[in-house]
Design brief:
Helix content of chain A: 40-55%
Number of helices of chain A: 13
Helix content of chain B: 55-70%
Strand order of the largest sheet of chain B: 1-2-3
Distance between the termini of chain A: 50 Å
Number of helices of chain B: 6
Chains: A alpha/beta (about 325), B mainly alpha (about 170), C mainly alpha (about 500)
Shape of chain B: flat
Family (chain A): Belongs to the UPF0065 (bug) family.
Number of strands of chain B: 3
Protein name (chain A): Tripartite tricarboxylate transporter substrate binding protein
CATH class of the largest domain in chain A: Alpha Beta
Pfam family, one (chain A): TctC
Structural class of chain B: mainly alpha
Strand order of the largest sheet of chain A: 7-6-8-5-9-10
CATH architecture of the largest domain in chain A: 3-Layer(aba) Sandwich
Oligomer: heterotrimer
Radius of gyration of chain A: 22 Å
Keywords (chain A): Signal
Strand content of chain B: 5-15%
Order of helices and strands of chain B: EEHHHEHHH
Shape of chain A: elongated
Protein name (chain B): DUF1468 domain-containing protein
Chain lengths: ~325, ~170, ~500
């Protein structure tokens, strides 16, 4: 562990100065056409979260492509509603982008908080980060499998405590599963958490029997939990040994529907796309090239951030599909 | 007010404070009950508000004070209060200046994102300086722009949020 | 439990790149400045400087970031003492006695006491962690909703000791705070009291509300005063007195030790951490003291209790992060990100596989603590000059800075609006003998109490015998009851002895 490559302070200072002072001016000098001035990246979360880290890690590569510096503007609050509203209030000139967990937050703010915008106001450029709901039990659990959870709940809905964040995609997945298995959801013993982190800790600490939370966040705790099922039609790469809800459908003979837990990535406003299709093309190209830049892939992977390129059409389609399934089951969400 | 041999006064300001607390608590309880009467919603709020309202009732008698016939007149005015100490001795002039400062502060907050943080701060610091007793024109002209510049530039450098300014 | 091989590997690691240590002083200074500015959190500082560390090697990067973290821990106490502004929730208890000391012209001493207690708390916490970091992960995960509820209720018991002259008003103020602390969306997803304002969904913004209640409300009353310290002869900045404060802190060894231990263990709990530990430590010190009435009037023991607890909490939070890979707050989330950039992933396996790195971090924090003593002294020296500024300049300027600070919390007008509303509420309440500090404590604890009460009820299915399945919760209750009974008994005995001595 001691063979670190030693770099002198001077070298660092040069690199640091170059990155913060020289680069923007150099970039501006080489810029031709749009964009002509620095851009903003709205992050509707506080500093330190996944989206904030994703934006800050990706920006160096994106500004290389755009030839203009980009700065992060954090606008947290009200489950991204404040940030989304602020974002849509900016001029439609393409100088403001957004990095957001579009799913489930945009649908949920619209459906549950009467947010003053609609799903179609946003145009996805790329949603590299996808997550799924994972059902996980504490490491020392006596539960063998998801089938056992179902059979115990069928016998006595109050026999197991289930931890989940209310009004979330995870909650919806849980309700859809109970529905398919014919378990009365008003009878179950639900323990509510106001975030993914606390719910995961509750599973790892053995305070709930099963927790339903986004799967990627569980990875650091993998030694202390027992993954039971991923809510996805097929098995997921990060938990290859864990059954999927598609497999559960087969074993209980009922279709278990599931929605994607979260979709995160780069967003612009629909109004901007209509007004400046040429600028939109430039942005899409720049983000595509940055996403596919091997240096960028390496840097982001080191920080466990996603870089897959799905493209605007696929991303928008996935995002709207997620919105529709949340909208379709809005009654299940309202009950929480 | 006179009952028997004693004179009583009602402390209207104190009554206002208790009323404000009671009204806010009661309105909050009403809104909570309107949202849902599920136990997950009212488990804590309902008992807490009830206790708060009972305490407001218990405090009501303290608002009516007996006037001490010997001391009678008001004590010497004192503006500066330690935390937790009750002040009843601020004079009307002093209260007026305080009220003016509070109004200015409220207006300042209202104007921040309407006329820009820089201009609003410059105006507020100038007015605040005057309210707090500075009457010489030169400091009133020189200090506020300097302070405003330092604050705006400093905060702009430190925070990761956009800030609406007119000049900077 | 100490791994000697790993320890020596850690020392080698630290010695291998001495230039990494060049980053300690700038890190500490950045931390102090960001920490001392109200509303600006250390998370922001670290988020801003994180990209710069991409160009550094692992060790300098981590030393630079942890130094900022260390510096910010003390930075928050400076405005708390000088202006009654707790820049973060962990400095609330520091204002209780720190600010009265400053008004009394004892600002030099107060700063000295705060700095020493902070550094001592930090050193002690890292020493404790050095011993128990491996089992800590299990302890922290084992803390469930009922245990958290008991700890939160313990904090609420403190409200009684903040009451001051009028007990009913003190309790009402505390309960009013608790009620306001539950506004917004609760943990079960119910939205109440938001009046249609979107940002109230996240609850009342605590830092701006605190600044309004404690600081702005006081500033209004200073309209016609001349100086923060009325006695001109005491207005100086005196190194001798700061050093006297250094020694003063060690005159109360029990207070400083107790504060540090409370801080380490409460700080290790993700999500509560330092905002409760300083209150608990303060309450304990006040209740156990021979002269509880001198607290809140400028008793240095109050500052010792608060500062030793909040700075040792940082060690606790750092340990949770290392041991679980779970960030307790934004700042530790950024440290985790910095680790990840260098291919080191936090989590239970992290400690087992990378013991030398864990120990290297602990050792370097130890060294940072000692250096903080020097850097902090210089900082205190500069900051104290505030007492020489005439109040007619200070009052509008500080109100304006508070406004910017309130905006800086999350970059929205929610902050300044909350600041203003609570400054008026605070001024009115203080005028009629309601302890605003109790409202602040209530506001801090309200959401926590409701959340944990709700979860305990959900987990247990409403069955009270659940308590008997939770030995940890019973143990905490036992500690509370025992310590309260012991203080009461000790006090009575002391009084009786005094009485017999007097009658003789």
């Amino acid at each position: 562990m001691t063979n670190y490559s030693r770099r002198t302070v001077l070298k660092f200072a040069a690199a640091g100065a170059a990155s913060t002072v020289l680069t923007p001016t150099m970039l501006m000098a080489q810029g031709n056409g749009w964009p002509e001035r620095p851009l903003n990246m709205v992050v509707p979360f506080a500093t330190g979260g996944y989206n904030d880290r994703l934006a800050r890690a990706f920006i160096p590569f994106l500004q290389e492509e755009l030839g203009q510096p980009l700065s992060v503007a954090n606008r947290p609050g009200a489950g991204t509603q404040l940030g989304n509203t602020y974002f849509l209030q900016q001029p439609n000139d393409g100088y403001t982008l957004k990095c957001n967990s579009v799913a489930p937050y945009i649908p949920l703010t619209i459906l549950l908080q009467d947010a003053p915008y609609s799903a179609e106001d946003f145009q996805m450029i790329n949603l590299p980060s996808r997550d799924f709901t994972l059902a996980a039990a504490p490491g020392d659990t006596d539960l063998e499998s998801m089938e056992e959870v179902i059979s115990r709940l069928r016998q006595d809905p109050r026999s197991l405590s289930l931890g989940v964040q209310p009004a979330s995609a995870d909650y919806l997945n849980l309700m859809l599963m109970l529905d398919a298995a014919g378990i009365d959801s008003s009878e179950i013993r639900l323990v509510t958490y106001d975030g993914g982190g606390p719910a995961r800790n509750a599973a790892a600490g053995g305070h709930v029997d099963v927790a339903f939370v986004g799967g990627e966040g569980f990875l650091p705790l993998i030694d202390r939990i027992k993954p039971l099922m991923a809510f996805s039609d097929n098995r997921v790469d990060v938990y290859p040994d864990t059954m999927s809800s598609g497999e559960l459908s087969e074993s209980i003979g009922e279709e278990v529907e599931s929605v994607e837990g979260s979709q995160r990535g780069w967003v612009v406003s629909k109004a901007f796309v209509d007004e400046h299709p040429d600028r939109y093309e430039i942005l899409v190209d720049a983000i595509e090239r940055a996403t596919k830049n091997p240096e960028c892939i390496e840097a982001l992977e080191e920080q466990q951030l996603a870089t897959t390129w799905y493209g605007p059409e696929q991303s928008q389609e996935d995002y709207l599909a997620n919105f529709e399934s949340l909208e379709r089951h809005i009654d299940l969400l309202r009950e929480s | 007010m006179r009952i028997g041999n004693n004179r009583y006064t009602v402390d209207w300001g104190h009554l206002l404070v208790v009323t404000v607390i009671a009204v806010i608590s009661a309105a909050y309880l009403r809104d909570t009950l309107a949202t849902s009467t599920h136990v997950n919603n009212i488990l804590f709020v309902l008992p807490a508000v009830i206790v708060a309202l009972l305490l407001c009732l218990a405090i009501l008698p303290q608002i009516v004070r007996r006037v001490d016939p010997v001391k009678g007149a008001r004590e010497k005015t004192r503006l500066d209060v330690k935390p937790g100490e009750q002040v009843t001795t601020q004079s009307w002039t002093e209260l007026g200046w305080i009220a003016l400062l509070i109004v200015c502060f409220g207006t300042y907050v209202y104007l921040l994102d309407r006329i820009g943080f820089d201009v609003a701060s410059w105006l507020f610091i100038t007015l605040g300086l005057f309210i707090c007793g500075e009457r010489r024109p030169l400091p009133l002209m020189i200090y506020p722009p300097i302070a405003t510049t330092l604050i705006v530039v400093g905060f702009n450098a430190l925070i990761p949020y956009p800030m609406y300014t007119l000049i900077f | 439990m100490i791994d000697l091989v790993a320890s020596s590997a850690a020392l080698q690691l630290l010695a291998s790149s001495p230039d990494a240590w060049l980053w300690v002083i700038p890190g500490l200074m950045i931390g102090l400045v960001f920490g001392a500015m109200p509303g600006i959190s250390i998370t922001m500082a670290m988020a801003i400087f994180l990209p710069a560390t991409l160009y550094m090697d692992f060790l300098p990067a981590i030393i630079f970031l942890t130094s900022m973290y260390t510096g910010a821990g003390f930075g928050g106490s400076v405005p708390a003492i000088l202006m009654n502004i707790p820049g973060t929730s962990s400095a609330v208890a520091t204002t209780f006695d720190g600010y009265p000391m400053a008004r009394d012209g004892r600002h030099n001493e107060a700063m000295g006491v705060a700095l020493t207690s902070s550094v001592f708390g930090m050193l002690l916490s890292y020493s404790v962690l050095f011993l128990v970091i491996s089992p800590l992960a299990d302890i922290v995960l084992g803390i469930g909703p009922l245990e958290m509820l008991v700890i939160a209720l313990w904090g609420i018991l403190l409200l009684g000791s903040l009451a001051g002259k009028h007990m009913t008003r003190g309790i009402l103020a505390g309960i009013f705070g608790l009620i306001l602390g539950t506004v917004g969306m609760n943990t079960a997803g119910y939205m109440r009291g938001t009046m249609g304002v979107p940002w109230l969904l996240d609850g009342i913004p605590v830092v701006p509300a605190m600044m309004g209640l404690l600081a702005a409300s006081q500033l209004f009353n200073l309209v016609n005063s001349n100086f923060l310290v009325e006695d001109e002869s005491k207005r100086g900045i005196n190194a001798g007195k700061i050093f006297y404060g250094f020694r003063l802190a060690f005159k109360h060894p029990i207070v400083i030790l107790r504060g540090s231990f409370i801080g380490v263990f409460i700080g290790a709990i993700p999500g509560v951490g330092s905002s409760i530990s300083n209150l608990l430590s303060y309450a304990y010190t006040k209740r156990g003291d021979d002269n509880p009435e001198t607290f809140g009037e400028g008793n240095p023991k109050g500052v010792v209790a608060a500062e030793s607890a909040n700075s040792s909490s940082e060690g606790g939070a750092m340990a949770t992060m290392l041991a679980l890979g779970i960030p307790g707050g934004g700042a530790t989330a950024i440290l985790l990100a910095a680790f990840a950039m260098h291919n080191i992933v936090g989590g239970p396996s992290f400690i087992a596989n990378n013991q030398e790195i864990v120990y290297a971090i602990l050792f370097s924090n130890f060294a940072q603590g000692i250096l903080l003593l020097g850097v902090g002294l210089g900082f205190v020296f500069v900051a104290s000059s505030v007492v020489r500024v005439p109040l007619r300049y200070l009052v509008p300027t500080v109100l304006s800075v508070a406004c910017f600070g309130a905006y800086a919390v999350d970059g929205s007008m929610a902050g300044p609006i909350t600041l203003f509303v609570f400054s008026v509420i605070g001024w009115m309440m203080a005028r009629y003998g309601y302890p605003v500090a109790a409202v602040v404590v209530g506001l801090l604890l309200g959401g926590l109490v409701e959340t944990q009460l709700l979860r305990s009820n959900q987990v247990s299915g409403g069955d009270f015998t659940y308590l008997f399945d939770r030995p940890a919760a019973m143990a905490i209750i036992g500690v509370i009851v025992f310590s309260m009974a012991f203080t009461a008994w000790a006090k009575r005995r002391r009084k009786r002895r005094e009485l017999t001595a007097a009658s003789r």
